[in-house]
Amino acid sequence: MARTPAKPISLALQGGGAHGAFTWGVLDAILDDGRLDPRAITATSAGAMNAVAFAQGRYEGGIEGARAALERFWKAVSRAGAPFRPLIRPTQGFTWFPWLDALARLTSPYDVNPYDINPLREILSDQIDFDAVHACRETQLFITATGVEDGRARVFQGREVTRDAVLASACLPFLSQAVKIDQRPYWDGGFTGNPTLWPLFYADTPADLVIVHINPLERPGTPKTPEDIMNRVHEITFNASLLAELRAIAFVKDLIRNDLLKDPKKARLRDMLVHSIKADDEMRDYPAASKYNTEWHFLIELRDLGRKAAFNWLNNCADQIGQTSTIDLNTDFLMAEAAE
After folding, report:
1. Which own/partner pairs from 314-317 qualify as long-range (CB within 8 Å, at least 24 positions apart)?
2. Which H/E stretch holds residue 24?
3. Residue 195, preceding peptide bond in cis (omega within 30° of 0)
4. Which of the residues in the chain have pLDDT under 50?
5. Which of 22, 52, 191, 294 is 20 to 30 A from 76, comparing alpha carbons?
6. How many helices (H) and strands (E) are present in the chain, helices listed first?
7. For residue 87, what are the CA distances in angstroms to 22, 41, 83, 104, 248?
8. 55 Cβ partners below 8 Å, 6+ apart?
C-alpha cells in the first residue's frame, strides 16, 4: 500500500536557551511520525539554531538527515557548555547563578568580554554548513533579530540566513556584544518576535501554522524570590510579541469569517489555520538557570519531553491539518479579550 503523502505545515519555533532541546524533541517526533512535512520555519534564538540544523540535515540527507543533524548540533552544544557547568550546579547548597545573573545586569559585555568571545559562534561555524542551508529548497527559513537602533524586528530569509544572522537572533544584550550585520547592530529576536509570524502571511508557505512553545504562558502564583521574579519577567516579555501577533491573527480571522473585507485586500489575506504545541506543563518546573544547563542527560530529558508532547498533539490533531484550526485563539490565548 502506498504511503499517504505528508501534509505540508509551517512551524513557528520559540527561543529559550538550552530549553530549545524541547523543540528538538518536537521536530524529531514530527519527522519520525511522517504525517506532516515542515515546509517553512519561522524561528528565534534557540529556535533559529534548530531551524538551520534542520535545513542543513534535510538538504544533505532528507528526513533522517535532519534528525541526525539536530542531534549532532545539540551534542556540540553540550560539549561546548562543559566549562560553564560549575556555575549552574548547586555547590553545597549554594547556587552561583542568581548572583551571576544579577552581576551581568550591572556590567557590560563590552567591558567584561572585550574580545567578544561567544561559544555559539564556534558551534555554528563547526556544525552548520550555511551553503547547505541555502540550498535546501524543501523548507523555507525566516529568522528574526531585533534592531538595536530602531527596535524593529528584522526577518532574515534566503541567503540572508547566515551565521551572524543566527547569532544576532540569539544575542542577549547583557551577555554578548550586539551582532553587526551590514553595519547595523542586532540583539535577540525574542524582544520583537518570539517567533515572528507575519512573514508567513506574505510568503508562499503552508496555511497550517504550528506554534511550538518553550516559555510557559501561564504560571500560577506570585513569584517571591529574585530569581523567580526575573524568570517570570523574561517569560512575560518574550511571550508578549507572540501574543500581540496572535491577537492580530484573531482579528483578521474574524474579518474573513464575517466577510468584512473587500477586494483587493480580501485576496491578499489568507485564513491561517493555527495549531499549538504548548510547553506549560512540561517546562513550568524548570528554573531560569536550567536555560544554561547543557549537560547531555538534561538535554535528552528535554528532547524526550518534546517528543512526548509532539506525539500527544499529533495523535489528537494531525488528521485536522488542512481542514481546521485545532485551537481557538480567543479562548486559548486571548482570554481577557474573549471575556470582555
Report:
1. 314/29, 314/30, 314/33, 314/35, 314/36, 317/275
2. helix 20-33
3. yes
4. 1-2, 91-94, 99, 336-340
5. 191
6. 14, 8
7. 22, 33, 9, 13, 41
8. 41, 66, 132, 133, 136, 139, 141
